[in-house]
Amino acid sequence: MDREIAHSAWKSAETVKKLSDRVIGFGPFGVGLDGLLAWIPGAGLVYSGGAAVYLLYLAVRSGASFTTFAKMGSVLGIDVLMSGVPLPVLPDIADMLWQGHLMAANALQKDVEARHGVPPSHIERVERERLKRGRGLGWISWVLLIALIATVWRSDFNETLSLGWWQAFKAANVSLAGYTVGLPISAGVIVLLMFIINALNRAPRRA
C-alpha cells in the first residue's frame, strides 16, 4: 500500500510540474501556468500558493524524508514570495524563470524513486525524457564552450601576453553589449554555467 501511495504521489507531482512549468517546453526549459498567471494580479499568488501546499501534502502523504520536505519548502517558499511581490514586470519575469514547482516536484519524485522506483507505467517515458534532456543539456554545453572561446578571442588577451599567461588573463577585458567586462569575470561565469549544466547532465538516474 505504501508503494502505491508513493507512486500515486509521484504521478500527481508529474502533473503539477507540467501544468506549472511545462505547458510550453523548449529543451530543458519551459513555461507553464505558474509563470503565465504571474502577469495577472492575484492569480499568480493564488495558483502558486495552492500548488505549493498540494506538493507539500503529496510529500507528507508519500512519506518523503525531512531533507526532501525541507528542500521542497525552501524552493516553494521562494516561488510564492516571487508571485506575491507587489512590483511591476521584474517579479513576473523572475517568477517565470524560477521554476519552483518543477524543482519541488523533481525532489519529491527522486525521493519516491529512491524508495520505490519509478511507477511501472511511466518507466519508458521517463527514460525517453531523461535521454532527451541529456541531449539538450549536451547542446547547451557545446554552445557555452563556443561562447567561452569567442569571449577569449574577442578580448585583448593577445595584446597583453607580454605580461605572461596568467597576468595577461587577469588584465584582459572583453566588450559585451557595449560594456567592458574583465575577462576573468566573463569567462568565470561561462565556466560556472558549464559546471552546472554538466552536474545536471550527470545527475543520478534511477530506474
Q: Low-confidence parts lasting 5 or more residues at pLDDT below 50? A: 87-91
Number of strands: 4
Number of distinct helices = 9
Count up the domains: 2
Strand order of the biggest β-sheet: 1-2
Arithmetic mean of pLDDT: 77
The coarse silhouette is: elongated
Element string (H = helix, E = strand) = HEEHHHHHHHEEH
Major sheet, described briefly? 2 strands, antiparallel
Give the % helix. over 70%
Overall SS class: mainly alpha
Strand content: 5-15%
From the alpha carbons, calculate the radius of gyration and give it in angstroms: 21 Å
Give an overview of the whole structure.
It is built from nine helices and four strands, in the order αββαααααααββα. It has 207 residues and is mainly alpha-helical. It has two domains: 116 residues; 64 residues, no CATH class. The strands form two sheets. It has a two-stranded antiparallel sheet with strand order 1-2. A two-stranded antiparallel sheet has the order 3-4. Strand 3 and strand 4 form a beta hairpin. The chain is elongated.
Brief write-up:
This protein has 207 residues and is mainly alpha-helical.
Protein traits:
single chain; 207 residues; mainly alpha
Reconstruct the topology from this structure:
Elements: H1 2-21, E1 24-26, E2 29-31, H2 33-36, H3 43-62, H4 66-84, H5 90-97, H6 100-116, H7 123-154, H8 165-171, E3 173-176, E4 179-182, H9 183-201
Antiparallel strand pairs: 1-2, 3-4
Helix pairs in contact: 1-3, 1-6, 3-4, 3-6, 4-5, 4-6, 7-9
